[in-house]
Amino acid sequence: MLNDMKHIISRLIILIAIMFSAAGANAQTVDRYHAQDGVFNHLSVGLNFGLSGFGVDAAMPVCKIVTLRGGFAGWGIGNYKFKAINTAAEMTPSQSVEDDAVRRAQMVDKVELAIEPNFWNFYLLAEVHPFHDTPFYFAAGLFMGSKNFLQFSNTNDGGLGFLYDANQKVQDYNNLFHTNYQPIGLKFGDYVFTADENGNINVRMKTNAVKPYIGVGFGQHLAQKHRVSVAVDLGLMFWGTPKLVLNNGTEVSTSGKNSGIGSAISWLKAWPNLQIRVAYKIF
Questions:
Q1: Domain coverage including residue 253
Q2: pLDDT digits (tens, 9 = 90+) for 196-250
Q3: What is the per-residue DSSP string for 204-223?
């Protein structure tokens, strides 16, 4: 993972260098479309919203064609509830372990879980405006913030003790009689999440804290003739390979035929970012 991150960052540095070189070659023909000449001689503050969340930022020019923009964006409001299948309820009599704890677990068909988004980042972007006749720009930089993209857990805190007890009996039975009964818990695709000793299931989707970003945009962050400006960004936030981590710190396998939901997210190595910014130029 560390080597992958170094590889991505090195590519990002090369890309930024190419962008600045190309922009520098056109610097003599670029007019004052997005800001007048000068370094840090303008300041705009903006509100933004999109796939990276809602946030605020500020932008300043560092030369005629380059703008620095830094701010904060995120979302983590509310939760989304759904029902997960209890695997004990799917056991047939021939598969069942004869135990009271297992029979109690079989009486519950589904369990309610809640997904809670939790995604926020600080970011610093360099924007290159290479063309004098259009408000098009390249953007590159870093997003830095939360590792947990989302997490889901049971809504009845501590209420899954019956699943924990049943799963312990199944494990003991497997160890004693060398059988291979599947664990008892909540089903996600082909994977089963089991309850902990506190009667809870808590699973986090974890990504990298530092996320390189590249993208393009259209619009103005520093208006030339008006105070208010609008810009749209479209890019990719490279956050590594997402991982599912249980509440005991165990990482769920995200490869192989039995990885279930982990296999579905393992290919999502970058988060798409569509962001709209409305800014006001202070000076």
A1: 2-281
A2: 999 999 989 899 999 999 999 998 877 777 789 899 999 999 999 888 888 777 7
A3: EEE--SEEEEEEEEEE-SS-
Residue 129: half-sphere exposure toward Cβ, Cα within 13 Å: 27
The secondary structure of 249-267 as a DSSP string is: SPEEP-SSTT-THHHHHTT
Name the nearest CA neighbour of 259 among 193, 202, 170, 194.
193
Closest by alpha carbon to 212, among 53, 3, 71, 10?
10
For 86, the 3-state DSSP assignment is strand
Question: Radius of gyration of the chain from Cα atoms?
Answer: 25
SS3 content of the chain, % helix, strand, coil (to 5): 20, 40, 40
pTM for the whole structure? 0.73
Task: DSSP letter for 194, please.
Answer: P
**How far apart, in whole angstroms, are the C-alpha atoms of residue 161 and residue 197?**
7
Overall number of domains in the chain: 1
* One-letter amino acid for residue 269 of the chain: K
